[in-house]
Amino acid sequence: MAQDFKAAFGFGADSVSISTIDADGIALAAIQELYRKTLELDQLRTEIIELRHTVQALLAKQQNQDKFTPMACDK
Prior knowledge:
The protein is mainly α.
């Protein structure tokens, strides 16, 4: 397992043991990345909500215009 850890993260004094400091550092980096991803998802969620409101407003505007547009009659 220590060999896999060293290969995956490039940390460790040797491939026989894992220092607790190395493991803690990796855990902290993972937490920071998860936090960054959470912020990114929150921004995307906000953008989606804004886009949905824009689409709803455009659809409502189109429906209002359709009410006042005369329809062509078939002859």
